[in-house]
């Protein structure tokens, strides 16, 4: 994930205008991908934690920040996202957006 965060910033690496997150390094935001109308971003905080950010058109943002290992987030209506190791098996119903991130837009929990 660190290599992905170090890539050059592109136009799509911007959170929706309806979303603000205090303590986020805005220049570090990177769009990982979009699945089922949910945009998945990663970024770093101003305290050097890694952040997972989910953006759904009607529901705004949900996010969590912390150490990379085991980082995950879930929100009703926005699904779930988990940081993984590239060699980890992808569970049924989940989609691998990048080598480090799996998502499940219709998840009712993190399981």
The value of Rg in angstroms is: 13 Å
Class per helix and strand makeup = mainly beta
What would the principal axes of the Cα set say about the shape?
globular
User: How are helices and strands ordered from N to C?
Assistant: HEEEEEEEE
Major β-sheet, in short? 4 strands, antiparallel
| Percent of sequence in beta strands | 35-45%
**Taking strands numbered 1, 2, ... along the chain, how are they ordered across the largest sheet?**
1-2-3-4
Q: What is the terminal-to-terminal distance?
A: 22 Å
What is the arithmetic mean of pLDDT?
Answer: 89
- State the helical fraction: under 10%
In total, how many domains does the architecture comprise? 1
Q: How many DSSP-defined strands? A: 8
Identify low-pLDDT runs: none
| Discrete helix count | 1
Quickly describe the structure.
The protein has about 110 residues and is mainly beta.
Describe the protein.
The chain is mainly beta and 111 residues long. It has one domain (2-13, 23-104). 4% of the residues lie in helices and 40% in strands. The protein contains 1 helix and 8 strands, in the order H-E-E-E-E-E-E-E-E. Strands 1-2-3-4 form a 4-stranded antiparallel β-sheet, with no helix packed on it. It has a 4-stranded antiparallel β-sheet with strand order 5-6-8-7, with no helix packed on it. Strand 7 (95-98) and strand 8 (101-104) form a beta hairpin. It is globular, with a radius of gyration of 13 Å. The mean pLDDT is 89.
